[in-house]
Amino acid sequence: MNHIKKLKPMTFWLSLLYFGIPSLISTIFIYYLWPYLIKAGILEMVSFVIIIYVPMATLFIASLIAFLIEGNKMSWTNLSKRFRLNPMKKREWLWTIGLTLFLIISYGGLSFTAKWLASIPLFSPPDFLPPIVDPRVEQAIIPKEFMGILLKGQWWIVFAYLGGLLLNIFGEEFWWRGYILPRQEVVMGKYTWVIHGLLWTLFHVFWKWNLLMLLPVCLSISFVASKLKNNWPVIIAHFALNGIGVIPLILGVLGSNN
Fold first, then answer.
1. For burial by CB atoms within 10 Å, which of 31, 40, 119, 176 has the most?
2. CA 255, CA 153: separation in Å to the nearest integer?
C-alpha cells in the first residue's frame, strides 16, 4: 500500500535556500577545510575523499530524512514513487542514450572554457588544489599516480573511486531531482526545469571555473527529469558522464603507461 503524502510546493525563494545551503557547505569544505587538512598532514587521498564525497553523502542522507519528515512510510514502493524511480521502457532508454551522448559531447566540447575562466582572477582556482581538479594543469591521458599514490596494481583506488561516484550521483539525484524538483513543479509548472537547471549550475559555484561547461549539463538533466517524470535516465546519464574518469584510472592501474 502506498503512503505518499501530498507534495508541499517549493517556491523560488525556498529553492534558493535548498540549493544555497549545500553549496555553502561544499564551499566551506573546499576553501577552508581542505587547506586545513593539507596543513595538518592528512594524506592527499583521505582529504580528497572527505572534501568531495562527504557533502554528497550528506545530500543522500538528507533526501531520505526529508522523505520521512514529509510523513512517508519507508518502503521501496513509496521511495521509488516519491523519488520517481520508475520502470525503464523503450522510450526511457532512448532518452537515456540521447542524454548521455549530449552530456559527453557538450561537457567535452566546452572543457576549454574551464582553463579560460581559470585565467581570470575572479574565477581562478585556489593554489592548494590537487592537479586532478585543477584546470590549469595538463592531465596525462594515462596517469601514473592518483592523489600521490602510484596507480600500478592498486585496484582498490578504482573501487574507491566508483564507490565515491555512486555517493555523488545518488546524493545529487535523490536531493535535486528526487526531492526538490517535484516540489518546485507544483509552483513553477512546465518551466521548472529552467529554474532548476540554473540553480543547480550555480550550486557548483565552488568549482566556478567549470560553470560554463556545467550549464548545458545541468539544464539538459533537469529537462529530461522533468519531462519524463522518471529519474533513472538522468541517474544513468549522470553516472556515465562522471564515470568517464575511471577509464584512465584503470589504464593507470594496469600499468599501460609503461
1. 176
2. 7
Report if pTM > 0.90: yes
CA distance linking residue 258 with residue 256, whole number of Å: 6
- Cβ count within 10 A of residue 142: 17
Which residues, listed in sequence order, are joined to residue 149 by a DSSP beta bridge? 146
d(CA 204, CA 201): 6
- The residues that bridge with 150 in the sheet, in sequence order, are 145
Burial of 57 (0-12, 13-18, 19+ CB in 10 A): middle
pLDDT 10s digits, 84-130: 999 999 999 999 999 999 999 999 999 999 999 999 999 999 988 88
Q: Mind giving me the DSSP string for 221-254?
A: HHHHHHHHS-SHHHHHHHHHHHHTTHHHHHHHHH
* Angstrom distance (rounded) from CA 190 to CA 22: 25
The C-alpha cell at 75 is: 518502503
Going by C-alpha positions, the residue among 3, 1, 10, 2 that lies closest to residue 179 is 10
CA distance 176 to 192: 12
Contact at 8 Å (CB) between 39 and 213?
no
Opening angle at CA 166, ends 199 and 109, nearest 5: 55
* Set of cell numbers at residue 40: 595538518
